[in-house]
Amino acid sequence: MANASSAVTDAGCSCASSRSATQFTPFEWVQGERLPPSLQSHAAFLNEARDVVQGAQTLVQLLEWDEDRRDAASSDAGAAPLFDACQRSSLQRFLAVSLGLLHARIEAQCEALTE
């Protein structure tokens, strides 16, 4: 996937797109059953948060791949992209909301630890 920063226009919507070459490696799960009961809920939260981050990274990679297909299809008779502009926008909003909710849970966990 190409690294680029450019303005992308889809269906009249101008959005700034910045692609990252960062590759995430799969996370190792925290084995909650080996921890004291007081830490098991924190381990479960960390595992869920890692799943969300890994899923978000996978979806970002899929969207970048699909944008590359869209760009290639517009320049030649290549394969059409999987997502139209509306679907792509919906998936991007889904990512933003998912990560926003995760951020709120992380903040709540941090506040609980400082009380």
Main β-sheet description? 2 strands, antiparallel
Kindly name the structural category.
mainly alpha
Could you spell the SSE succession in H and E letters?
EEHH
Tally of extended strands? 2
Rg over C-alpha atoms, rounded to the nearest angstrom: 18 Å
**What is the count of DSSP helices, taking H or I runs of 4+ residues?**
2
For the termini, the CA-CA separation is 45 Å
What proportion strand?
A: 5-15%
Helix/strand layout:
Layout: E1 5-10, E2 13-18, H1 37-75, H2 85-114
Antiparallel strand pairs: 1-2
Helix pairs in contact: 1-2
Short description:
It contains two helices and two strands; from the N terminus they run ββαα.
Report on this model:
With 115 residues, the protein is mainly alpha-helical. The chain is 60% helix and 10% strand. The protein has two helices and two strands; from the N terminus they run E-E-H-H. It has a two-stranded antiparallel ribbon with strand order 1-2. Strand 1 and strand 2 form a beta hairpin. The N and C termini lie far apart (45 Å). The N terminus is likely disordered.
Features:
2 helices; two-stranded antiparallel sheet; 115 residues; 60% helix; mainly alpha
